[in-house]
Amino acid sequence: GRISLSCWVSEVICVVCELYILVLQAEVGIRGLVRSRGLGDVDKRRQLRRTLSAADAAAFVTQARLRQRARAKFPHAARMFFTAEALEQSTSYAPAAHRAAQFDALAGAGDFLDLGCGLGGDLLALAQHRPAVDYETDPGRAPLAAANAAALGPPDRITHTPQDWPPAPAA
User: Fold this and answer.
1) How far is it, in rounded angstroms, from Cα 104 to Cα 130?
2) How many CB atoms lie within 10 A of CB 57?
3) Which DSSP string do the residues of 10-40 spell out, in sequence order?
4) I want to staple 7 with a disulfide (CB 3.0 to 4.6 A). Which of 91, 108, 139, 171 is the partner?
């Protein structure tokens, strides 16, 4: 399907954010900053502002804080992307993995469908068992699912569809 401009912009923002994270890991030791919860440290914020614009530094710090909060839900949160609302609404990985294993054991042959996949927590668990197709209409969440699947999921088992489920053909 076609990707809307707002969805494309969100994807670009995710890619840019990830590139900033990689650059900052090398330039200012951001791994230690995130691990130590030192995001409130004035010196670290000044280092970020010297490297990034104020808006980009704020976005980076927000993403780092969300990743800290997400560690309670996702074992690989440090490699994922979040919004506060999507994180709050997401299924923790352990129940998602348990449910995916049950679905795999009980479902007939074929791909899994994740309709309204959000940031992709269930999608990642489902794709560990068989191919999965996600449908997400929210232009802010579809890129999160794509970015999280690219970071963690088996890429050959996940198909992204940033649109609504197609209507059934008329009889």
Assistant:
1) 8
2) 19
3) HHHHHHHHHHHHHHHHHHH-HHHHHHTTGGG
4) 139
Residues listed for the chain: 171
Dist. CA 16–CA 41, nearest whole Å: 24
Closest CA to 61 of 32, 40, 36: 40
Decide if pLDDT at 25 tops 60: no
Could you give the C-alpha distances from 45 to 90, 144, 168, in angstroms and in order?
A: 29, 25, 52
Tokens of 113: 């469908």
pLDDT tens-digit series, residues 134-147: 988 888 888 888 88
Q: Mapped to the 3 state alphabet, what secondary structure does 81-93 carry? A: CCCHHHHHHCCCH
Q: How far apart are CA 106 and CA 85, in angstroms?
A: 32
Residues 86-135 pLDDT 10s: 999 999 999 999 999 999 999 989 999 999 999 999 999 999 999 999 98
Cross-strand pairs, 112: 132
- Alpha-helical runs (H) found in 52-154: 54-70, 84-89, 93-106, 121-126, 142-152
Q: What is the pLDDT of residue 40?
A: 56
pTM: predicted TM-score of the whole model, two decimal places: 0.71
